[in-house]
């Protein structure tokens, strides 16, 4: 069985579509872990009859909470604004069973197709395939036992997906399923394609330079100041 763990925080706009998409899988368990939504996220999730848990706000902690409650042999960590391809469960089972594979993820496609996003997609898919470094919006999956042996996600406010994948690479190959998930481009819509991309790369550079994830998270999530009229 595959346990699909979806961390949420005010995801009313996307969670219905995501759950309709995930519900098409065979022999799966769906776990919503909410970090304190104030919209109708929980109401929508409950209407699907899935397992709904509450946790402190923070994607790493929310996903760890879901993993602790999961019954499946495989864990799939899915963003609330990401849709999986048809047959995703079969892709996951085949991939995770390959010799030498420690974990996997999918290729990335972003919607809506804003100018410049195709290049972002290509770079992300190149990074995933060549460097074996997928990010969380590519639906990372791993065997439950290995996830537990590694201690789960590090409780950090940002880069938790990168940190986990870095540890998983030491255990074996990170396989990339050759069909894409479709993730929302809302971050790029809100912040601008190139501004958001540069900000992401600055956080990555800061991480490698040893800047504390707490400081990086505070900077990354700091509201952008509006210029005076």
What does this protein structure show overall?
There is one protein chain. The longest helix is centred in the C-terminal third of the chain and has 16 residues, at 193-208. This protein has an eight-stranded mixed sheet with strand order 3-2-1-4-7-6-8-5, sandwiched between helices. It is built from ten helices and eight strands. The termini are far apart. 44% of the residues lie in helices and 22% in strands. The protein has a single domain, classed as Spore Coat Polysaccharide Biosynthesis Protein SpsA, Chain A, CATH 3.90.550.10.
Features of the shown structure:
alpha/beta; 44% helix; disordered C terminus; eight-stranded mixed β-sheet; 22% strand; Spore Coat Polysaccharide Biosynthesis Protein SpsA, Chain A; globular; 229 residues
* Distance between the ends: 56 Å
Give the CATH class. Alpha Beta
How would you classify the helix and strand content by structural class?
alpha/beta
Report the radius of gyration as a whole number of Å: 17 Å
Q: H/E order of the elements?
A: EHEHEHEEHEHEHHEHHH
Count of separate structural domains: 1
The largest pleated sheet is described as: 8 strands, mixed
CATH architecture: Alpha-Beta Complex
Tally the helices: what do you get? Answer: 10
Helix content range of the residues, please?
Answer: 40-55%
Largest sheet strand order? 3-2-1-4-7-6-8-5
Which residues sit in consecutive blocks of at least 5 with pLDDT less than 50? 225-229
How does the overall form come out from the CA principal axes?
Answer: globular
- How many β strands by DSSP? 8
CATH homologous superfamily heading: Spore Coat Polysaccharide Biosynthesis Protein SpsA, Chain A
Strand proportion: 15-25%
Overall pLDDT level: 91
CATH topology: Spore Coat Polysaccharide Biosynthesis Protein SpsA, Chain A
